């Protein structure tokens, strides 16, 4: 069966999250990272890129290139929150979601029935929903396999969609620079160039054996990629941890009362969703939570332990909504969500790295991840604290059917 893979990648993710709450920064060169000492640029916006500023560049050099550069510190808790929301959107279209970093994921939509199974329309819808619900843009690539989808997502950046249909693979591949191939870094690219190999078309002049002679096992991979072969599956390795429903409103809800009016329908929707997964509460859920996103995109979640058997109703969620609203009475609400956490996270030893750590450092951000390259697992505890048996946290999200949430809490 011809596979349909989508690669989604947010555009200058950290900077985009900062700009959404401070729109005046959109037109100004902006970099995210430590301003002092030996800090590096973790992300920068497009106005900054116009000055030649790039990710991983020392901040001192970035400032030399652009003295008026605005520098903001990383705000990982918020980025992680937006990341989880984004993954929850992905999960509406396929259970096969493989996150690569906070802002990047592969989806296998081969068996998705929405949009008559059109991966192109699904990718468009994902892009639309992320922009609508999260206020940032993503670029997407659609292709029959992972490596082509990833190249494609980069093709029309930012805010773009690039589709490589099976019958277009050849035309796309032949002129493709080898440096674009998965796993080809600067060193391999230089070696290939020395051999006069610049494009996939050049690479195809070589036999698999000849490439393996020069590049070892990697040579076989180069050979396969040049012929468009990449059978790597989209790997889902993290267990479902919570389930939720949420609604983004085209007109902001004016206040607490309007939110309460929406609770019954949302609770009903949650019941249906749980029912579809045969979750009836006979094993009690661990926690309930309510999430609000206000007009300024600030997002607040309140959760509480829940030890009863059965399905929680609107009355069970109402107190959490009131907590969230305690000091925000007049604020408009653009999103209301509620959900259950299924159990406390259980993490087997040696499980793959968490994308969300609490070291205020983006994992794998400054280096290319290689196949089989597993960083040590980092446990994660987002900024939350117990208040009278209720955990409150800001920007502490819940996935919409968040199977991808995994080791995160
Ligand atoms: Mg990105």
Q: Can you describe this structure?
A:
This protein has 3 domains: 1-162, Alpha-Beta Plaits (2-Layer Sandwich), CATH 3.30.70; 183-226, DNA polymerase, domain 1 (Orthogonal Bundle); 242-405, Dna Ligase, domain 1 (2-Layer Sandwich). With 409 residues, the protein is an alpha+beta fold. The longest helix has 21 residues, at 256-276. The relative contact order is 0.14. Helices cover 32% and strands 19% of the residues. The chain is built from 13 helices and 14 strands. A 6-stranded antiparallel beta sheet has the order 9-12-10-11-14-13. A 5-stranded mixed beta sheet has the order 5-6-1-7-8. It has a 3-stranded mixed beta sheet with strand order 3-2-4. Bound molecules: magnesium ion.
Descriptive terms for the model:
409 residues; alpha+beta; Alpha-Beta Plaits; 3 domains; 5-stranded mixed β-sheet; 13 helices; 14 strands; 32% helix; 19% strand; binds magnesium ion
Distance between the termini: 37 Å
Strand content range:
15-25%
Low-confidence stretches: 344-409
Radius of gyration equals 23 Å
Instruction: Count helical runs.
Output: 13
Residues in helices, as a percent range: 25-40%
CATH superfamily of the largest domain: DNA polymerase, Y-family, little finger domain
- The CATH class of the largest domain, by name, is Alpha Beta
**What would CATH call the architecture of the largest domain?**
2-Layer Sandwich
- SS-derived structural category: alpha+beta
Could you state the order of secondary-structure elements as H and E?
Answer: EHEEHHEHEEHEHEHHHHHEHEEHEEE
CATH topology of the largest domain: Dna Ligase, domain 1
> Quick one: how many beta strands?
14
The main sheet comes to: 6 strands, antiparallel
Give the averaged pLDDT, no decimals. 82
* CA-based shape: globular
Bound molecule kinds, no repeats: magnesium ion
Strand order of the largest sheet: 9-12-10-11-14-13
Total tally of structural domains: 3
